[in-house]
Amino acid sequence: MSLSTIASGIGVLELPCLRLLPISSTQIQFLTVEARKQSRRIRRERSFSPFPVLIQSNRRLRHGFSELNSSFDRSNSGETGSDTTLKDGEEVRSESSSGVGDSYVGLFVGMLGLDNDPLDREQAIETLWKYSLGGKKCIDAIMQFHGCLNLIVNLLKSESSSACEAAAGLIRSIASVNLYRESVAESGALEEITALLSRPSLATVVKEQCICALWNLTVDEEIREKVADFDILRLLISFLEDDDVNVKEAAGGVLANLALSRSTHKILVEVGVIPKLAKLLKADNTENKGSKVIRKEARNVLLELAKDEYYRILVIEEGVVPIPIIGADAYKSFRPDLYSWPSLPDGINIEQTAKAPSRFGASELLLGLNVDKNVDNVDEAKMKAIVGRTNQQFLARIGAIEFEKEIKSEGPGKSQQLTLLPCVDGVARLVLILGLADELAATRAAESIADASINEDMRVSFMEAGAVKPLVQLLANNNKETVKLPVIRALKNLSLSRTVCQRIEAEGAVWFLINLLKQPEISLNVTEHVLDIIAHILDPSKEMESKFYEGPVNGSKADSRKEVLDAAVFSRLVQIAKTASPNLLRNAISVIEFGIISNPNMDTIISKDITTVLDLALRQKVLEEPENEAEELEKHLLKLEEAGLTISAASRLLTKLLDSESFRQTIDTAVFIELVRKILRSSLPLHYKDWVAACLVKLTALSSPSQSLNNPINLEVTLYKTIPSLVEQMSFSSSPETKEAAVLELNKIVSEGVPESIQTLASQGGIEPLVKLLEERNERCVEASLSVLYNLSMDSENHTAIIRAGAVPVLRRIVMSQRPQWEKALRLLRNLPV
């Protein structure tokens, strides 16, 4: 390369003349001649140096480069593994060394020109990279040359790993300065870095510098939007499994920066970042090669995502639980028993055979050693609870469970800080916090339990870890609503499990909840949560199931329920149902129904104007809204589902109340018949009409003795409930017996000449499943299907649907094979236009 080229390049780059030492034209001419004499073979055989080849004659220039070399070495030796953003005005290098180095920056920038030799460009970029490590002042010296950034980015396309590493490293240094990040993003660096990272075989050092450059760039919120691209994120996630720990840490750092913007959360979740980071967080230090950085970055990303309710569920499903940071002082109130007989975390004591404990704890040791013999009798949830409790109590005893330095701020933000722990330790930590004397800490633990109780496994885990008892104690011993509300939320979410419901009732929570419900001054939010818990515990459907599978409820349990559900409770339930939301109305009706099941004497309930509640529940406005006029179809369907739950509960209660003579005397049967008929003809989902149909039949039986199939009420039940249900069974049931029973029942209805049954059957989509049943080997199914299809074929409007369902080839096979039903099949074929 000639220095005349360098000189021309310097002119293009608008070098400030005051920044370079003057070089005379004689020197340039001399250097040019000497450079041409140097053969390429000799240059390659020389030992590698990041500096240009200098001749002995130009002592002044050689002396300057020597000074620059020494300053590069000093700055390079001070490089650390962490990536630090340089603040404006930072002074890292001394004025003397910086002054000498700055004088020759323009020369190396000029050597980056596209018309220069690739080896010269490589040496120049490596030199500038080392120089940039000196701090912000050195970076400013490079960036003052307009166009240099484009030349640096262009070198990312180089086939040389050294050139790519140096270019990416220099971009990383430039991006560490706030002033230049936007310029780097606009220069096309993001696209070139993505292309470079996409290469199949890329050196680890190049990957590290590229990802670290992205790490610095994503400090800027606007640049995060550009980096949050599916291709880039896919690469970053793949680098989380890289063998090099520095690459993994850098990838985690980029993801942590991206997670700071809520707008990027959706795409982060879509590319699968949660499972990967949760795996890193749960892994042992040995699996992560001792890296605390990657665990920290993974925790930061997941905590940011967990701020969204839906994404928090996804995080917990991967086996990590958000835990409140309460400070080390809060754990000082933890007082473990100096001596206690071994027990399970949920409070169940292990049988004690010795009359007195052994002096040195040998009996406890032998008990622990003997557990393995009966390990099959201890389920996994109990084993995890024991391990988690042991770990957390040990950390609390030695004072290492949490450190004050984890609390980063004071004031309101302090009480909202969270960390993440694997499920086993996280569940045990939350239960431990519940038992502390710190009221605020216990409240935050209850909130975390409420958020983490997302599925049956988590609810059972909290129960086995012993969370139910301290929650009930907090409910009983604290009158502050700020404490009660999180506790009630936790119990509500835990009560979604039938197993946990039984434990909550066993701890005596129902009595406290009922007393709380009786207080009219409590807020509507608390009332709704309390009634939810009571409805889950006192669920009439679960009660009937438990009687069937587990036998009758024991006497003491039944008596306690009767004592709790007194007249005052029913009066309060009716009051809530008449003035509250649909959810409260439904739950109030459910608890009232439970009272009827547990207490056959219904005079108390009947006297409380229960008919008003039933009338309110059966009059749902959503049933009057046409689907095509609804503002949003999804909202309309959701309202329809909620209305179905309320109507089903009210119909079930009304059906049972009709067994009481005194209740029948207090209601207008005609009004309720009209209401229920209207519901039966509505667009309510079919599975909610079971109790509606049963209620209508019972109301009709009480009002008129006629029970023939042509009775208007029975006819509506047949058309709007029975026939659609039978079509559904034929279409979706996997049981041949169920399909056979359904088609036989349909044949019976059609054969008896029920008005409009043919039209209803066709409109409900019954033709296609009937044709499919023709291919069954069950002769009764085939015969019944042929009979129903023959009746359908009597209406020419059904011909197209029968042919489209594929009936013609099936019927021809039956006729040609002379099956027992071939005559009926032939008659059906003659009716069709084929």
UniProtKB/TrEMBL annotation:
Pfam families: Arm. Residues 70-84 have a biased composition (Polar residues). PROSITE patterns: ARM_REPEAT. InterPro entries: ARM-like (IPR011989), ARM-type_fold (IPR016024), Armadillo (IPR000225). SMART domains: ARM. Residues 70-99 are annotated as: Disordered. Residues 85-94 have a biased composition (Basic and acidic residues). It comes from the Eukaryota. ARM repeats lie at residues 188-227, 231-273, 466-495, 765-807. The keyword Repeat applies. SUPFAM superfamilies: ARM repeat (SSF48371). Keywords: Repeat. This is ARM repeat superfamily protein. It comes from Arabidopsis thaliana (Mouse-ear cress).
